[in-house]
Write a structure and sequence with these properties.
The structure is a homodimer. Chain A is α/β, with parallel strands linked by helices. The first copy, chain A, has three domains: about 5-125, 3-Layer(aba) Sandwich (Rossmann fold), CATH 3.40.50; about 135-300, Dihydrodipicolinate Reductase, domain 2 (2-Layer Sandwich), CATH 3.30.360; about 340-429, 2-Layer Sandwich (Alpha-Beta Plaits). Chain A contains 14 helices and 16 strands. A six-stranded mixed β-sheet of chain A has the order 7-9-8-6-10-11. The interface of A and B includes residues 29 and 295 of A.
Amino acid sequence: MTTLNVAIAGYGTIGSGVAHVISQHGEHPDAKINLVGILEKDTQGVFVRSMFEQNPELFYENSEQLLEDKQVDVIVETIGGKDFARELITNALQRGKHVITANKDLIAVHGSELTKIARKNGRHLLFEAAVAGAIPVLRLLKDYLQVRDIQGIQGILNGTTNYILSEMESNDLSFEKALSQAQELGFAEADPTNDIKGFDARYKLVILTYLITGQWLTPEQITLEGIDHLELADFEYAERMGRHIKLVANLRLIEKGAQVYVLPLMIKKDDMLAKISGSTNAVTLSGKFSEDITLIGKGAGSLPTASAIVSDLNKVLRHPEPFPPPPTTEKLEIEPLEDIRFRHTLRFEVRDHPGIFGHIGGIFERHSINIYALEQLPQYHRIGKEGEEIVIFTLTVQDCQEGLVLRALKEINQAEYMLKPVVLLREIV
Amino acid sequence: MTTLNVAIAGYGTIGSGVAHVISQHGEHPDAKINLVGILEKDTQGVFVRSMFEQNPELFYENSEQLLEDKQVDVIVETIGGKDFARELITNALQRGKHVITANKDLIAVHGSELTKIARKNGRHLLFEAAVAGAIPVLRLLKDYLQVRDIQGIQGILNGTTNYILSEMESNDLSFEKALSQAQELGFAEADPTNDIKGFDARYKLVILTYLITGQWLTPEQITLEGIDHLELADFEYAERMGRHIKLVANLRLIEKGAQVYVLPLMIKKDDMLAKISGSTNAVTLSGKFSEDITLIGKGAGSLPTASAIVSDLNKVLRHPEPFPPPPTTEKLEIEPLEDIRFRHTLRFEVRDHPGIFGHIGGIFERHSINIYALEQLPQYHRIGKEGEEIVIFTLTVQDCQEGLVLRALKEINQAEYMLKPVVLLREIV
């Protein structure tokens, strides 16, 4: 009988979920996972109280006591935050304990250092639960798909933003209304910055990029755009082009390096990622030999996350020797966004008067940009405060490098009729 | 450096694909897979000729020579068929060679016997490529999701039928037209029986059931209905109820055993499986703790299948000791279809005259079956050869056990106005 002694650090919604899933898994005949300790300062919290009343002997008084506990094989870190968690994980690894964490912010920022410490001490540092909750994407990447020569990954990695985008699209809600609805339903936090600005998705992409390339990028190396600048008009114009808008985290390996970004993208309705609605997450893996594989599931939630952590526990139980790090790409040069070809759709908001299309057309002509589609819908015509006519229209240009469009936009944005700078939406070509 | 010596038996589209993928994988620094032999009678075939010209020394003269080749660690069987392949696999395992196969018919029928032989001889018998081609569902099931207490699996496991159903639905093609179009495009074989009658999906479900429950069912134990009795009217009536029709292979573990069947089902348009179109495959796994996970990818094709085989090769390379068999459910009692509750939609084709609804309603009343919805569209009214009015309508009854509906149908089908027996479409409740 193999046994694994686990201590949980941080006994909130995830930590208590882990304890619950472990207790349900006690029946495996050939292997056993024991919960032997809990580190949680606030023993009166809603998730912890009954556990503390029934098993006070499980609770450590401080982290030093946990680290000194020789019977502990693995620490499950579900405290969150950076400094304390980082110190705890470092110390745990150095004292020969395996660590499992769902702390994506920490791993995205300090993964390079922490995985080195784990390797040096011959211990597992696993973080399946840090990316896309219930979807076993890390597991697949590490154990299985690496032999298939992954060429790229595209994911909807943030449930909050996907929920908001779905609501804007299906129910014609403004961004603000969709966000406050998401907050009411518990899909978005009181301070939604991390989600709507794309930071959360970017952290996850850092981790996925490491698993595919063996290289730790800093989050800032990844081009990022959130979704809070999108308007209903974007969805309506996209709809007329047969497209949905999704916040996509993308890594594509190219000959000279990689394209890597988190951007709201237009996606053909038939594509799998376009069909993902609500707070669901999805990841599409592209290989050299296999066709695309898409994995879909809920991205968050106490039990799915806890279940991912227990999967990692089972991994440690079955393979006490840590896995080798992912094969490392020699050098991961990131292609500047300006050099990447997209199909760009530009949303204009202008003070209407004759000659605007001629002016824009002239600028495009000078930059050798071809217009692919143009649409102006009557519902996006209104009279402004000073009696002027205001219209919102979109213009799609033929595939070209982003830099070319940016240069044209620099001129266009200076025109006196422009009420705000052009909003850019891209489609992968 | 770990090395693995591989012989391929059967060098057609899949076998040559395996050789191709292996040749691309030779660069792994710490492990190497060598192709050391090929068994193929017809050395002039389109896939084999150039290989034979360049490497004639790789070719065995007969299977005995292959089996005697001491350097061979693993045999990849891509011959297909039953008798020869079965004998080859049996002999290979008995002589201490691992075996990897994509032969789902063989595994579904003789898996019980062959896995026993493999276990007795301490060798791997792997068949990732036998189910859903590029989708790593077996791998996930075996290594990972078993710790999550899988409660059920639902899959679109046959690309041919899904292609036909998609075409009927989206392009209003009759079954016959959609089938011949699939044949022209190479999505269906000249003799499509195996696909359209559901046999292929059933074989795959036998294998999935083994992996989840440790029990080998015989294919005949699984209730089966194909798709060749479906008509355009079914799709139009389903559409009006917000449903798509998919051929679904389903296993659901229940307290007293399992529900297991392959049936065309009505599925809500919002459900992930309803969104799978064309020749794509998909599998949804349901766990106790994790929310549903859906995996989507191409089900067949030379390189995806070869890639799945090479994944299995890597598994053997990294874990030379065979994995333990899946945990075995004590007894797998299959719930009779009659006892399962569905929402049933009944398609009637009748010689119209006053009193039919009254007659049907009376029979339902006697059986305590409630009507949930009823629809008769004008486009399904026509004049028959003898001048009689013929209508096709559908009637959906409230959730109840299948047996109840069958008893009512026994009476209804005898009515003189019935032009053919009622066609039943089910929805999981």
